[in-house]
Specification:
Strand content of chain A: 5-15%
Number of strands of chain A: 5
CATH class of the largest domain in chain A: Alpha Beta
Distance between the termini of chain A: 46 Å
CATH topology of the largest domain in chain A: Rossmann fold
Order of helices and strands of chain A: EHEHEHEHEHHHHHH
Oligomer: homodimer
Structural class of chain A: alpha/beta
Number of helices of chain A: 10
Largest interface: A-B, 35 and 35 residues
Mean pLDDT of chain A: 88
Radius of gyration of chain A: 19 Å
Low-confidence stretches of chain A: none
CATH architecture of the largest domain in chain A: 3-Layer(aba) Sandwich
Strand order of the largest sheet of chain A: 2-1-3-4-5
DNA sequence: CGAAATCTCCACCTTTTGGTGGAGTATGCA
DNA sequence: TGCATACTCCACCAAAAGGTGGAGATTTCG
């Protein structure tokens, strides 16, 4: 049969791509048909090769993984994408799944887990590990930050003072304080430094 | 000839190990003789296999990369270790090189860069890329934190207040402030939140 | 030994941050 | 239409953080 599963691998690290290709090569019914090193390339190559499954890292240069997923899913609503990332505390998991990813794997997994996930997702099901599902549920339950609060939080992480944030966003310092108050209570912390580190830990913002 | 280079691969991510093994397998004169997933295992396997070259990730469970390097180099002063990491801003580079690493590579490298580095280090030379050497020189030039300042900085990143830090360290709040003043000026920042984020960015401390 | 660095602490002051409670406007959804 | 949410802003207050300058004790190292 010509039923070998066509796979695209997206990761900016050459070694990781190599590892995935090597792992997949041991499976007779799977084949890597394309490799991309960034989000843009992933979108282009998806158009060209229409892989059955895309294994995608979230941290990518140019266009990040979440954006790439959204774009690909817009063009090809049936695209099946499995997210592959190093950081399990990452808020982007949630965003990626919302953007239409069908599976999620940590890079520490075994070959078996990978091939199982590929088969599961290829068969049309989703494959989200218990740990992640749990964290996701947790996350969903918890209060989410508004976009304005995110603007402020990013600047807190960037080390800006309330005054600077106010002028960055063209609002008064009082408003900044209001937002910060919401942020602190939503994150369950008591000052901006904690807000910064827990935001980084939970992957709500990144140090790029 | 029996002159194939014996290599040990240390990384907690299965995929990365697989990638390295696959890359190295394409070189006829190199061979992976051992794989370790954490620092302890790396030390044990080094005793058993005495590889010519060890490729070591720095972020490892149990015993971190730097400790493992130090331990291995204590037992086998001639061990040749190449550090392999994802994060190029990482302060651990410096520590790893001090601990006796002979080479340093980012995971984004090409197959050529890897094999070249292996050959260079195997021949007894060091192989530190220009970018890293530069950053290292920069780092050396810059003021370094004292151990007490590091104690304080860690707690700042941990989101502790001055009062809490004081009681953690059994010193007065005044002393904490003194240390923080030094930290801020040494890091070239103006408040604790910036201190936290730049410390994370430069890899001086980690969010574990 | 003597200089340098480190660690500890104090006083005094200014600025920043966080806490509380209230309030008006716009938007969107039931 | 009416309620909920998000965004904006205000005043007032208390606590925390940061800036400056000085000082004694200990260790380290040339």
């Amino acid at each position: 049969m010509s039923e070998s599963i066509q796979i695209m691998v997206v990761d900016d690290h050459h070694i990781v791509r190599q590892g995935l290709v090597a792992l997949i090569a041991t499976m007779p019914d799977m084949k890597v048909v394309a490799e991309a090193a960034d989000g843009m390339q992933a979108i282009e190559l998806h158009r060209r090769y229409r892989p059955d499954i895309t294994l995608m890292d979230l941290r990518l240069p140019h266009k990040n993984g979440v954006e790439a997923i959204a774009q690909i899913r817009t063009e090809f609503p049936t695209a099946r994408i499995i997210v592959l990332t190093t950081f399990d505390g990452d808020e982007d998991i949630y965003r990626a799944l919302q953007a239409g990813a069908k599976g999620y794997l940590l890079k520490g997994m075994t070959a078996d887990e990978l091939t199982q996930a590929i088969r599961t997702v290829h068969s049309g099901k989703s494959r989200i590990p218990a740990v992640v599902a749990e964290r996701l549920a947790e996350r969903m339950g918890g209060p989410s930050l508004t976009s304005r609060e995110l603007d402020v939080l990013k600047r807190i992480v960037g080390g800006r003072s309330n005054k600077e944030i106010a002028s960055d966003l063209f609002i008064s310092e009082a408003t900044v304080k209001t937002h910060i108050n919401s942020i602190l209570s939503k994150l369950g912390v008591s000052d901006r430094t904690q807000a910064a580190t827990t935001a980084l830990q939970r992957g709500i913002v990144h140090l790029d």
